[in-house]
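Contributing new records

If you add data, match the layout below exactly. Sequence lines come first and carry their own label; structure lines follow with theirs. Keep one chain per record. Anything else will be rejected by the validation script.
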Amino acid sequence: MKKTLALALTTSLFIAGCASTGSEEKPMAMAAGDSAIVQAEKDLAAAIDAQAQWKILDPATGGKAVSLSKLLKVAKKKAEEGNMDEANRIAERVSEMSKIAVTQSERYAGAMPSYQ
């Protein structure tokens, strides 16, 4: 009985170890890219709260002007496809543009037209 239990436990651990060997690389890559995407989500949320979401041109969208929200969706799609370099590039761009949009919104919050 003890030998059967030990054999079953050893076999299950061996099978579980072999099954997870090939899939460990992708989650590690996803985790590295996810940090840029998570930061972009936070920065974009701040821009949306400030009512300062921009539209920008990017090659990933075929050169069309799209909102930062749509561009972030493209970054997430690229990450799911495993293209982490492109996902990080897009996410960093969304993050940077969101920060600049918030700064612009704060700077010109009380702007009024001047009729001189």
